Write the structure tokens for this entry.
Amino acid sequence: MKKFMDKKFLLSTETAVSLYENHAKSLPIIDYHCHLSPQEICENKQFKNITEAWLYGDHYKWRAMRAYGIEEKYITGHADDYEKFMAWAKVIPMTIGNPLYHWTHLELQRFFGIEEPLNEKTAPAIWEKVNALLAKEEYRAKGLIRKSKVEVICTTDDPVDSLEYHIAIKEDKDFSVKVLPTFRPDRAVDIGKSDFLEWVGLLENACGKKIENYDDLLAALKDRALIFNSVGCRISDHGLDYFPYIETTKEEASSIFNKVMKGETISAEEEEKYKTYTLIFLGEVYAELGWAMQLHINVIRNSNTRMFRKIGANTGYDVINDSKLAHKLIGFLDSLEMNNKLPKTILYTLNPVDNYVLATIMGAFQGEGIKGKVQFGAAWWFLDNKEGMIEQMKTLSNVGLLSCFVGMLTDSRSFLSYTRHEYFRRILCNLIGEWVENGEVPDDMELVGKIVEDISYYNAKEYFGF
């Protein structure tokens, strides 16, 4: 019997162990998609305790706690931090089979040197030990990033963001990690949302120009993209509940925008036409700037209305959507490709049913001279577990080139989540190691070792141009 989460954790063959230890383990991390706060990085945030570092804003853990019947006051409510930590300690032994169980213990091991499992009995001592470490200078935000050997962080930022913290981080000569913004214009695209006009006002303030028509809006978005580019942005991102695409014209999109600006109601078809034209315009901007475009597709957000009204968005009530996307996604990509303005693109789905759909669409829009121009993105959100990662990589291998994959990201708000890269690298090494041991791949460590290194680090570095 193997020891719990020892050095061979998730590595079932000697080849897998060799691949991980000699080719993946020591490589730096490029975290090209996350939700860390640039302000907290800039100000080198110090966490008052493990609950603040671990449980604040972590809707993964919140969902598990609710599933175990924990009262909301111990999740997002007014219980004190120790009570919330003890509630999580009660739940964690019951999460066996959920990636949270492994993530939690990897974080305890790698950051705090704690080998024993977390439970109600061990929790008080773990609380004291971890909090004592968090009080040290090297456990502030920047220290946790350094400890994880992170080379690049790409945060997620609204076009109206001032980027002041990114600029300040860049000027900090004592912190060598690149912290770059990611252009996320969801609120510009979501014309049907109740806060759209409010956001247009924020965009006016950011640009210092009045937005009176659709041309003004597009010009303002491009201006902000240029500002982002000047601060080092290399990536855009879109969160899409479904993929919108209806053939339309700029005149139609302009008319729809004008209606909304006048306070008039638009139809679902009009909303989709506006989204279509705006996304195509943005795709062309990204191509001009040499950025990669990320498309995160098929999520239903805030599905529990009562809880949304009570505690707001991003609190653990989002679910997988099952909208069909092949024809519309192809239409969008093809409209950009026809004008030779398709940027590097990463396709993510929250629905595993779409895996082969995205992987085959990816293969239809590759570009000369760019290795893996269109990517089938890493297993995302509800899918970034052991089986989800394996299925994503097997699908990519079956119909594309796993060797060109840009690898893992954290997609997290926590400074302790970098162990997810280790989790991914172990799974990757085990998958390829099994192929070697089964005689499906040559026992050529120079070949397979280079592929592991590329997927873990070098492909992303080259693809994004960091």
